[in-house]
Amino acid sequence: MSATVIADPNACIARINPEHYSHFIEHLGECIYDGIWVGPESAADHTEGIRKFTLDALRGVGPAVMRWPGGCFADQYHWRDGIGDPESRPTTRNIFWGGIEPNRFGTHEFVDFCQKIQAIPYICGNVGTGSPQEMMEWLAYCNGHDASTLVEERRANDAPEPMDIKYWGVGNESWGCGGHMQPHEYAALFRNYHTYLSRMDANVQFVAVGHDATWNRDLLRALQRGNSVPNLQALSIHRYFSRDRNEFVYDEAEHLDLVAEAHLLEQDIAQADGTLKNYEDPAHPIGLIIDEWGVWDKARATPEHGLRQPNCLRDAIIAASCLDIFTARADRVTMTNIAQTVNVLQCLVETRGPEAWVTPTYHVYDLYQAHVGHVAITTHVESPTLDVLDFRQSPVHQLSAAASLSSDGTRATFTVTNRHFSETLACSLNIHDGHMGDVGGRLLTGTDARAENSPANPTAVTPVPLDVEGSATTVHLDLPPLSVAVVTASVG
Ligand code: AHR
């Protein structure tokens, strides 16, 4: 089997923001507690209470933005519970994910974590059980630089400088766990929150809760004033891959279903894009943020298990396919946050007591850093198809691919994934009307779909240098079944 990719440096899509490679953490299972926060008294290796392995691993993939504290949890979270003397903080019931929330990881710990991994903080505010007043005060506490009592309180809590929280989500899944609202109900609340929050800090970006095509249309219609929707900088949507499935069996049929399901993101983005175009002022485009996405193995990742699921090569293949979709839609997608960084759902880092390791999905993020800051360019792909149909009832390519060009136009990056369960794919990479040199690359693969890293074998699935050969016009590489590769080359 063979496939060809022709990348066209003259057909630029848009810059790939670092924010495309962003993350999400929630007070759920062992994501925050144990995964990130072990506390200053912990026997585990830590830096000021934050697990050192997690810090080092995340630094390695340059997470652009970190979203917190939920998820569903965000709409029951009251920020004052998580500031001040840790010993005096209240404990609260986690109504969505069970257990008692100790509130040891609050705003200061979150911001400290973000600073340590050089991520931009993104706070998802409480609309479900909160108020505009509460969120406005949270914003003032974090970002204020005046002499108000709230800012003085922050300074007294050891944070003299403003925290510069750049992104503020106005609720989470307000159509579901965030209040089961109708679009017009959420629109009224969004307008109200936005009125006050934006006066408190005009420099931050507010993210509205989006959903499916109907919700997005009705929400934007309700927010419309005159010809367009004012004051909306970003709309967020979520997409998990777990539809109608009670069990993951890791066989080929299931893998093909997941690959096809991942392509629903193309539909999500196209639908949201069309709706946004109808309602936005072209001079002020509204960004599309996919701030929760990933594989959700519903058979294993139950609330009783803290939404833990095995993270294996199959998931890495899905992650790479999705990141290629985001690259191709860099014209609309401004941020994406895989769910959820540590120990929950499609995570990058796993911990168990003193042990910690990175997952195959982690390595995809590592490989894809090569695109950051580049301009996405159009690719023409010729590939065999898989034995599955996508949402359009069209066959799905065996090869997933994306390409980008450095901003000075001198280097190209290709990401290519062979999604076939058992067959190698001979792949040719070309630059339209151009030459390539100084070619290098890395390859991620494993023994089978279920290959995973573990404390006993933490590097079972890990990137290796890639054998590439070819002429100045074509780079050839063999992609083993279920493999992801990144190839970089100078272009001229
Ligand atoms: O990531 C798990 C949950 O999935 C989040 O809390 C919620 O936003 C979504 O439904």
Q: Output the radius of gyration.
A: 22 Å
Separation of the first and last Cα atoms: 29 Å
Average pLDDT metric: 95
Bound molecules: alpha-L-arabinofuranose
Shape: globular
Number of helices: 10
Structure description:
There is one protein chain. By secondary structure, this protein is α/β, with parallel strands linked by helices. Helix content is 25%, strand content 29%. The chain is built from 10 helices and 26 strands. It has helices spanning 52-61, 107-117, 132-143, 149-156, 183-200, 213-223, 252-262, 264-279, 313-328, 360-368; strands at residues 2-15, 22-24, 46-47, 50-51, 65-68, 92-93, 100-101, 120-125, 167-170, 205-209, 234-241, 287-295, 333-339, 349-352, 355-358, 375-382, 385-389, 395-397, 399-405, 411-418, 425-431, 436-444, 464-465, 469-470, 474-479, 483-491. The strands form 6 sheets. It has a 10-stranded mixed sheet, covered by helices on one side. An 8-stranded parallel beta barrel has the order 2-5-8-9-10-11-12-13, surrounded by 5 helices. Strand 14 (349-352) and strand 15 (355-358) form a beta hairpin. Helix 6 runs parallel beside helix 8 (264-279) and helix 7 (252-262) runs parallel beside helix 9 (313-328). The longest helix has 18 residues, at 183-200. The chain is globular and about 65 Å long. The two termini are 29 Å apart. The relative contact order is 0.15.
